[in-house]
Amino acid sequence: MKPANRGFTLIEMLVVIAILGILMSLAVVGVSAALASAKVSKTEAIIEQLVSALESYRYSRWGDYPPSTLMEFRASLPNEINNGAEAMTACLASTQKGGSLLGNLRDDQYVNIDGDSTSRNITEWFFGDLSLREISDGYGQPMVYMHHKDYARAGPGIRRYRFDAGQPEVMIEPVRSAETRTFLRPDKFQIFSVGKDGKSGTADDIRAR
C-alpha cells in the first residue's frame, strides 16, 4: 500500500521562503553594484572624451583652453551658476574653425540644470536655441570645469554650481594634491564629476587624470 502524499510543513515553507528572500537580496545587490559601476564607467568615458576635445580646442583651433566663464567673451550672463560647465560646452560646440568638437555626445548628455539662456549665440554653437547647456556625467549632473589661470583667483562666478534643479547652489574649489597642496593639472584645466553623492571633495569624485 503506497503512503499518502505528504505536503510541505509550515517550517519547510518558511525555509523555502527565507532561501528565496536571500537569493533575491543577493540579486538586487548584484544589479545595484552593476548599475553603480556602469555610471562610474560612463562618467570616466565622458571625461576622457572631453579631455581629448579640450586638447584639440587648444592645440588645433584656438591656442588656449576654453575660459572658466563666458564673460570673457564680453557676454552678459543671467546668473553666476554653472558658468565653467556652460563655457566649456559653448566653446566645444562652436561651429567656427572646423566645427563642433562634441560630435560623439548624445542629446541626453546635454542638460541645463539652472534653466538659463543668453541673449545671443556667444560662440556660434550648433544648438538651435540660446540655452546655456552643460554636459552631464553618468548621474545626470553637470561636469565641473575650470581653466588653470583661475585656480588661485576663482571668484563666486566661477565656483558656484548647482547639480540638481531642486537643490541649492554650492561653492566648488579647484582640487589640490593631498600630499603637496598644489593644484592638480596646474598648466591645463580641471574637469571632474562630483559623483553619486553630488558633493565635491569626497571619495566618489571622478577626475581627469
Care to give the gist of this entry?
The protein has 209 residues and is of the alpha+beta class.
Q: What are its keywords?
A:
single chain; 209 residues; alpha+beta; 3-stranded antiparallel sheet; 3 helices; 7 strands
Report on this model:
The chain is α+β, with helices and mostly antiparallel strands and 209 residues long. The protein has one domain. The protein contains three helices and seven strands; from the N terminus they run ααβββαββββ. Strands 3-6-7 form a three-stranded antiparallel beta sheet. It has a two-stranded antiparallel sheet with strand order 1-2. A two-stranded antiparallel sheet has the order 4-5. β4 and β5 form a beta hairpin. It is elongated, with a radius of gyration of 24 Å. The model has no long low-confidence stretch (mean pLDDT 91).
Work out the oligomeric state of the chains in this entry. Answer: single chain
> Which whole number gives the mean pLDDT?
91
The string of secondary-structure elements, in order, is HHEEEHEEEE
How many distinct folded domains?
Answer: 1
What's the N-to-C terminus distance?
78 Å
Strand content range = 5-15%
Task: Output the structural class.
Answer: alpha+beta
Secondary structure blueprint with pairings:
Layout: H1 10-62, H2 83-92, E1 110-111, E2 134-135, E3 144-147, H3 156-159, E4 160-161, E5 170-171, E6 189-193, E7 206-207
Antiparallel strand pairs: 1-2, 3-6, 4-5, 6-7
